[in-house]
Amino acid sequence: MALARLNGVAVRGIVSALPARVEDTADLAARFGEEAARRLATATGIHARHLAAPGQCTSDLAVPAAQALLDGLGWPADSVDLLVFVSQTHDQVLPATACLVQRRLGLSKSAAAFDLSLGCSGYVYGLWAAGSALTSLLPRADGRPARALLLAGDTTSHILDPDDRAVAPLFGDAAAATALEIDAAAPPMIVDVGTDGTGAPYLMAAGGAMRAPDQPPRLFMDGTQVFAFTLREVPGAIAATLAAAGWTAADVDRFILHQANEMMLRRLGHKIGATDEQLVLALARHGNTSSASVPLALTDAVAASLKAGALRILLSGFGVGWSWATVAATLGPLAVCETIVLPA
């Protein structure tokens, strides 16, 4: 594990964006049969998912989320110094999607912009990367604190076989935008990250890149291996993060874990000592939205509390790679915290 402390960075707001199209259990029943669809929903806790339209890319979700966030905060586009775009479903092979988003949002040419190609762990990695980069910037001539936009999202439905019942009923599409700003008074964030590349074959989309350019990308997942990895690695990472922060499980107001599967989340919550009140379950109407699942859970299930005051929150993402990342952070009050559904 690698532990880090992030000082002097505040989260100002979060907006999540969902595509208009919804597929629910009734739609799955038409493909897999009513009994199979019912069993899948019962086992996973997922009853509906928002799916991107054909040709609708991850940036098409992230840009409206970012614009709504900038508008809600009253931040001019040219006041953003850094853009980090986290995804594993980029618009195209190159250039970096962050560069395309910089243009679409009208950010300054002096803004730094780069991609992070991570999935389930990506949001927490993005917080660490964006926050660390912000703290390294030299003071601005106008004296304003440095600002960053962290965008995280995936349109995983584009790389699914809709008839593969191992993955099609689980994954939804979403993107989220998070505003960060330098603030010396902000409580520190404690981050733990880890990687085990031996797990790569168990959750992957092998086609569509340089290793297999003639094959279309199709998501494969061995759910048994994912479950075993999660229960093997994540509890220790969470324990290490809590210890480094000087917290116990009882000190945490909410545990926001990667929203992959309700059964797995409940098992994991039990292992880390989270109560039912502390453990957030926000996947019933969204499914597994990969890098967007953690911020979407924040805006979907904890928005009112985060706008009203400060919460001690533990965020943890884990999965494809294997890759995992956890942060203990005091968040709030947030000026903006909402989920929006984009028009069809």
TrEMBL record:
Domain Beta-ketoacyl-[acyl-carrier-protein] synthase III C-terminal: 242-328
SUPFAM superfamilies: Thiolase-like
Record's keyword annotation contains Protein biosynthesis: no
Occurrences of domain Beta-ketoacyl-[acyl-carrier-protein] synthase III N-terminal (ranges): 114-184
InterPro entries recorded: ACP_syn_III_C, ACP_syn_III_N, Thiolase-like
Name by which UniProt lists this protein: 3-oxoacyl-[acyl-carrier-protein] synthase-3
Keyword annotations: Acyltransferase, Transferase
GO MF terms held by the record: 3-oxoacyl-[acyl-carrier-protein] synthase activity
GO aspect biological process, one term: secondary metabolite biosynthetic process
Top-level taxonomy: Bacteria, Pseudomonadati, Pseudomonadota, Alphaproteobacteria, Rhodospirillales
